[in-house]
């Protein structure tokens, strides 16, 4: 469904000596994502996740490399490819001068939907995200959670075959987060290919069939979430050592508890997460 | 393509409809002040220019500068849609051609420019000005709106900060409003300034509106200059749309 080959993005920036320099944000990325898959793109801030999504959604031009959806190439089939995709951006990007309904209507018109079709689809999706009664309110009046739900509903109006979600649950409370997960799972059941970026391994564990981990623009791991966590151990024991927080990985909770009992300090036993996977894979802490 | 142009225009029309009364009332303020201060105040103590009163000279100038300001400023919210709200991305990920977006936005700015021009025409007649409105007169106004909508679009797509957008108004539009044959003829300027000002599109709009409005002959060269600015402006818009993807 999605084929990415040798994808590179370089930006010009000023270095510490105030000289122009090229910075590689995405470095030779190769991915094949199967139809109907929920695929997660993980990594710390600045890893290149958003830049990758921006290239995949044709908002940013790649420096080099190939992007293909169902055999369509981004170099010459952009309009056809854009008709296939739905995009849920990281930043809430509604038209601030329009109401909820008008924002939805604009999206439907931009995707060339007929009057009756768009009326029906907008009503159906607003009902699904429980925002039907806010249709005539300006989008500014919605809460953060409502805006996130509406962003997803908007991206689904034209029945996209591929859905891109960039940090869809960042800064949301657990109830809203779970609700959005349900929405994503429903898309999966309807055979939509989903590519999402997230900071949260927990989110990836709940949702994704496979995840790719990016660090400094490079792909450093590609596997199922379970397999990734098992690489470092599913459980972590953490405790305060002399001058830093120390930790060790264990495959089972029992082994973790057994070890924790031997530590002469207050310990915490928790599931391993993205940072732990990173420590194991890169040999350092995230963003240090 | 036409449907997409209509969609982009439709969005701006919806926003304008929400604010139509506010838009009309606010557009009356500046022309009223110009007409009162320069038409009544200064104009009554000035000798007739080219066989007509100063207010007859002034109205085409006000129409030119007003249509410039309105069409430019109608399109500049695209800047905050690009930089702050990111709502421009909704168009960029949609299966529409960049040219459809450009044309739709320009047409919406032309509409706003023409609505505010109608307000000035009504006010000018109430103030006792004499001028004729012909299809050619309207066409020149449309050309002027298109040129400054294109300049506004280019600025909105390339300028990085809100402050710099304000500076564009201060350093470019404001001096043009006063110097491009709007309130006085360009031959009153020092020679070097006159030649420079005559390179600018607003000077040619003022000149064309004044001559057509008075029923005089007009220069085809001025019409050609406006057409040239319009074509170059469109190329700038297309270039600016490409640049934002880099």
From TrEMBL, chain A:
It comes from the Bacteria. One of its GO terms (molecular function) is ATP hydrolysis activity. It is found in: Membrane. Gene3D superfamilies: P-loop containing nucleotide triphosphate hydrolases. It is a multi-pass membrane protein. Keywords: ATP-binding, Membrane, Nucleotide-binding, Transmembrane, Transmembrane helix, Transport. Residues 2-241 form the ABC transporter domain. One of its GO terms (cellular component) is membrane. Signal peptide: none annotated. Its main location: membrane. InterPro entries: AAA+_ATPase, ABC_transporter-like_ATP-bd, ABC_transporter-like_CS, ABC_transporter_ATP-binding, P-loop_NTPase. Pfam families: ABC_tran (PF00005). Belongs to the ABC transporter superfamily. This is ABC-2 type transport system ATP-binding protein. It comes from Propionispira arboris.
Automatic annotation (TrEMBL), chain B:
It is a multi-pass membrane protein. Its main location: membrane. InterPro entries: ABC-2_transport_permease, ABC2_TM, ABC2_TM_bact-type, ABC_2_transport. PROSITE patterns: ABC_TM2. One of its GO terms (molecular function) is ABC-type transporter activity. The keyword Transferase does not apply. Residues 22-244 form the ABC transmembrane type-2 domain. The keyword Amino-acid biosynthesis does not apply. Pfam families: ABC2_membrane. It is found in: Cell membrane; Membrane. Keywords: Cell membrane, Membrane, Transmembrane, Transmembrane helix, Transport. The chain crosses the membrane at residues 21-42, 54-78, 99-127, 133-156, 168-186, 218-241. GO terms for cellular component: ATP-binding cassette (ABC) transporter complex. Belongs to the ABC-2 integral membrane protein family. This is Transport permease protein. It comes from Propionispira arboris.
